[in-house]
Amino acid sequence: QVYLEESGGGLVQAGASLKLSCGASGNFAGIDVMSWYRQVPGNERLLVGDITQYGSRIHIDSAKGRFTISTDNANTVYLRMNNLKPEDTAVYYCHINYRRYTGGNFDAWGQGTRVTVSP
């Protein structure tokens, strides 16, 4: 079992920057993938980007060059968002793929943090 705590969302104007944080805690042996998704109400939840031991990647074309995923020495993943645009408005969710001490592969979702970008 694992708990994900997200923070950093808010209301900003176009062109501003935000840094989202997601900290993982609980009973796990290791985390293999840490990801950020976003969802607009009434639409599908989309993969924004992910990070593994092999590196990070942004998957949404409109966010490439503006968004960056990174981690610290602990079990925390960040999403740095620069030059925000109104179309970035969404609820952003943290997601991890992890292993338990007893074995197996599992996943967990954060509660989501809201990002609103005004024109």
What does this structure look like?
The protein is mainly β. Helices cover 0% and strands 61% of the residues. It is built from no helices and eleven strands. The radius of gyration is 14 Å and the shape is elongated. The model has no long low-confidence stretch (mean pLDDT 96).
The overall pLDDT average reads 96
Overall radius of gyration: 14 Å
Overall geometry:
elongated
Using DSSP, what is the number of strands? 11
User: Which regions contain 5 or more consecutive residues with pLDDT less than 50?
Assistant: none
H-E string: EEEEEEEEEEE
Beta-strand level of the residues, as a percent range? over 45%
Q: Topology, please?
A:
Blueprint: E1 2-7, E2 10-13, E3 18-26, E4 30-39, E5 46-52, E6 55-58, E7 67-71, E8 76-81, E9 90-99, E10 105-109, E11 113-118
Parallel strand pairs: 2-11
Antiparallel strand pairs: 1-3, 3-8, 4-5, 4-9, 5-6, 7-8, 9-10, 9-11
TL;DR of this structure?
This protein is mainly β.
Keyword list:
119 residues, single chain, 4-stranded antiparallel sheet, 7-stranded mixed sheet, mainly beta
